[in-house]
Amino acid sequence: LRLFPIAARLIAGVLEPLGSVWLVQGLRRVSRDPILPGTLVVLLTLATALGIIGSAFSSTLEQNQRDRAMYEVGTDLRIEHNGDRFPTGTLGLSNLSTQLTNTAGSAEALRVTGHLLTRSFNTRRISVLAVDTDNFSQAAWYRPDFANGIHLKELMSNINPRKLNKSPLLDPSHGLRLPKDATTLGAWVQPGMSDARLVLSARLIDSNGTYLDVSFGNLENSGWQQLKAPLYPEAEHDNRRSTSPSDKIIPPLTLLSLQLTSLSGVDEPGIIFFDQITTTGPFGDETIANTQDLTNWQVIEDFSAPGLNALENNLTVTREGSSNSVAFSWSVSGIGTKGIRPGPAEEAIPVIISPSLSKDAGIGIGDHLSLGLSSYSIPIKVSQIANYFPTLDPRDQPFIVLDQYAYIHYSNLHSSRMTGGPNELWVRLNHSESTYPDFKPVFDSKNLRIKKMYSGEQVIKTRTEQPLNSAGWGGLLIIMFLALLLASCTGIILFSYVDTRERLTEYALLRTLGSSHNQVNAIVWFNLLLVIGIGGLIGTLVGQQIGILLLPVLEISENGLRVTPPMIFQINWGILLLAYLLMGIVFICSGLWLSWFTKKLEIQRVLRAGESG
Fold first, then answer.
1. N or C: which end of the chain has fewer CB within 10 A?
2. Phi, psi (deg, nearest 5) at residue 319
3. Which residue in 551, 114, 514 sits closest to 351, CA to CA?
4. Is 33 helix (H, G, I), strand (E, B) or coil?
5. Where are the beta strands (DSSP E) in 233-302?
6. Are 386 and 401 in contact (CB under 8 A)?
7. Dihedral pair phi/psi, residue 117, rounded to 5°
8. Model pTM score
9. Separation in Å, CA 58 to CA 298, 464, 540
10. What's the pLDDT tens digit per position in 244-277?
11. DSSP label of 299
12. pLDDT tens-digit readout, 152-189
């Protein structure tokens, strides 16, 4: 009420040299006598603000119930299965599921638990979710406010090594490709100070992306020897676990690493000398890596205790006919696998972390650290910080999200035991269809078993049907809003009539000074528009701000904890548009009535009445 006449006077002063007569006259009138129009503005502001809050109350609660359900499930349909017993980067379920009807998108994922290897961070568990960053944005439910306005597609691109070109180990050309017709892998070795119970094995990957191990046997003999491992052992002699859903190894194979393992728990330092890596096939033996090539190999770094293993050129321990060898030495510390691999140095995997993890560990975007898992660790780099991510509750555990292929590849590189592949399938459904697709044939074709299915629609239905989660306070607020709106409209009609009656002399004088009937009507319409427009606009803004301020109170759930994800202020524009329509009808009807009233104005009679008064 204090600012309203001041603002009207300032605007009138600015527009007086430029504005029309009806505009300047209307602003002058409001600035000189602001009590009645200002009161109506306040009343309309209160009514509109209450309408905003009332219309948003129920819709905000209802939308949050849906958001909480979708956050819990992560997508329309999430399927847990036993695919993690197959060591492969992907099971191909996404390609098969998209061929089903009523499926809009799908992506595989792997869920595990880990911890950070930092001194400043306590060793509590971390939720680790490895996702198919190429397809995840087409399958998952997501809100941009989870990561400071970043959309899911952009978020996935920021942690996709194939798009960032920051993970050379994911390029098959950096392994050692074996001839397609090779049947045996050989290695010239001489055990040095090493336990005879140690087993030398090779980790490979086939052309279908399936990891497998082949064993050269124990290092029980001394001196130079050529150890050989069959690449395709007979089924009856193959004691390895099933390596792929189809139990088929598809050549050509790629050698990823040579590892030293022990089933008896040998934990002693040692050294072993390498000379050549060979293969045997129908056309005889073929050297695929000579001694000079081996000097360019890398140590499989143990990130829990880095720098304790070494790969060096050796000129003293040599095989007959060779001028040098390669010595691999290791210490007793660390938890990762001991071995060597071809290819360039490793680059850290880009990841998304939760703010709680960033705070507790004292890390930020761009920092490098190590993610500890069951018996190994992998290098990671913080690429993004997200407050929330579907299915991951930061209140329960800090979380890390990374690329599925990179995680599985690095895990199978650093772990002595092969790491399994995806164990979840995320599916977005086409809601124009009413039935769920049948996924059983898809999983049966891959020899997989469905453990559990989570339906977003079913969880939403369960939540919205609970009466305590859908309280009817919004209805009460809407009734109050309609009552105030009715009072405001009645006040506008009364104000219009009284104001016009009081200003009859003013309108008559304007007519005698040359103003047309339309200009007088413009003054009448302008007064109405000024009151309704300012009241409705300020009320809308005030209602939104009050509603946003009330969100922290509404975010306390039925169990006394703050909801995850947080609420978003949701306005029911249908109810508000009805209210705005009602005010518009009142504005038009009042304006037409007043125009008719001023049209019957008898100038001379009004002026004589004014003189006699």
1. C
2. -85, 150
3. 114
4. coil
5. 254-261, 270-281, 284-289, 298-299
6. yes
7. -100, 70
8. 0.79
9. 61, 11, 17
10. 565 678 889 999 999 988 776 667 788 999 999 9
11. E
12. 999 999 999 988 876 666 765 678 999 999 999 999 99
Residue type at 564?
T
- Residue type at 448 in one-letter notation: L
Interval 440-481: pLDDT, tens: 888 988 889 999 999 988 888 887 666 555 455 556 666 776
- Mean pLDDT across 13-27: 72
Cis preceding linkage at 252, omega within 30: yes
Instruction: Work out whether strand 377-385 and strand 349-353 pair parallel, antiparallel, or are unpaired.
Output: parallel
Q: 552, 455 in Cβ contact below 8 A?
A: no
Residue 574 amino acid letter: G
* Angle at 303 (CA atoms; ends 314, 336), nearest 5 degrees: 75
Tokens linked to 68: 């909480």
- Long-range contact list for 308-317, CB < 8 A, 24+ apart? 308/333, 308/334, 309/334, 309/338, 311/340, 314/273, 317/190, 317/192, 317/273
Three-class SS state of 556: strand
Q: What is the DSSP string of 109-173?
A: EEEEEEEE--TTS----EEEEEE-TTTGGGT----GGGGTT--HHHHHHTT-HHHHT--GGGSGG
Query: What is the DSSP-derived secondary structure letter of residue 315?
Result: S
Provide the 8-state DSSP code for 18.
T
User: Any idea what the Cα angle at residue 417 is, between residues 415 and 420, rounded to 5°?
Assistant: 95
Q: Which DSSP symbol is given to 108?
A: E
The CA dihedral of 236, 240, 242, 246, to the nearest 10 degrees, is -60
Both tokens of 148, joined, read 């400071």
Identify the three-state secondary structure at position 349.
Answer: strand
Cα–Cα distances (Å) from 25 to 19, 29, 362, 450, 590, in that order, read 10, 6, 64, 77, 20
